[in-house]
Amino acid sequence: MKIAVIALGKIGLPLAVQFASKGHEVVGVDVNQATVDLINSGVEPFPGEAHLAEMLAELVPAGKLRATTNYADAVPEADAVVLVVPLFVDDEARPDFGWMDDATSTLAAHLTADTLVAYETTLPVGTTRTRWKPMLEEGSGLVEGTDFHLVFSPERVLTGRVFADLRKYPKLVGGLSEAGAARAVAFYEEVLDFDDRPDLPRGNGVWNLGSAEAAEMAKLAETTYRDVNIGLANQFAQYAATAGIDIYQVIEASNSQPYSHIHQPGIAVGGHCIPVYPRLYLWNDPAATVVRAAREANAGMPDYTIGLLEGVHGSLQGQRVVVLGAAYRGGVKETAFSGVFGAVAALRERGAEVFVHDPLYTDDELARYGWQPYHLGEPVDAAVVQADHAEYRDLTPASLPGIRTFVDGRRVSTAEAWPGVTYRVIGIPGT
Fold this sequence. Notes:
Elements: E1 2-6, H1 12-21, E2 25-29, H2 33-40, H3 52-59, E3 65-68, H4 71-74, E4 80-83, E5 88-89, E6 95-96, H5 98-110, E7 115-119, H6 127-140, E8 148-152, H7 162-168, E9 171-175, H8 178-191, E10 206-208, H9 212-243, H10 247-254, H11 277-284, H12 289-299, H13 301-313, E11 320-324, H14 339-349, E12 353-357, H15 363-368, E13 382-385, E14 405-408, E15 422-425
Helix pairs in contact: 1-3, 5-6, 9-11, 9-12, 13-14
């Protein structure tokens, strides 16, 4: 097959590589010329994705994968076009379809008959049918369901382990017609491999959910579930701390029964997915009070954690406080909706002199966010762990000279590692 992949970011590029690894001719499209040039040189444009570098180095010289900024070079006569263009959101996660609209319009202008078009970017329910179908038909002069087929198939992978996740989880598909869905099932069965999953009642593979709307909602539902679960865990943790209870013992005990799956509390819920997709769900269903309450509870956790620090440390006015971790999660160089923003704001509101440390970021990169970089070994009065980087598991008081209070927002350490220092964890009183 000839396959075009639109947008070669942290999901799109690994997808293009996966398709090419199955022997197909893949052309990727990206608006960034520097990204295109790196890919065509067989070099990964971003670090941290397992196996991406070696696969690029093999597939590009073999002529199986190339990149371009030109839709006219990639889209005409393609058997399938897969779009993973970012959907931008504001601070309240209200969708901004600007980039996706532009990509769809340009795709439509070059779309030819008998092409399967699959959107993988997470979308509000109904977007595929009510937004993309009319735009593609108007721009191409073709008729969906007759001249081309349009489906939604959400990405369900985590950056850093995309190739493993593609094999591990069922590929969900929803079409606008039975014929389109069948075409999509056949396509994804051809380009993906799946691990054996005897735990799944339907087995692993490509699952046709019957409609684009069902596939859109499935992605929103699985991510919103996590946000709601974490919100519940965070509220349990806040109550447990006031009642003299170790919430982690409670969670472990509760989850020993097969109907309980309580997640872990923490300083923040960050990233492109968990903080965002519940808002996209609320965009469709504003009456979802449970979803809204959980999102608000999780959004308030950075301020709660800084309040915990203030409660045990005393006034933060003029105190040197370092936030450990700019990234939204350990090992990933990405600050999307990271708890660092709320933590820094809460510390500044309390008059602290705030520093930020992250082993993945240079001083200049941190400074561009408006933060004062911190280096281990410099004097500090208090520290708050925001990202669970592996490097933070080995910290000791010697790493943070002068420290009096250590608030472990991700439970990466233990009280025993901090002799003479007030150590606190969310959900455990008096640690």
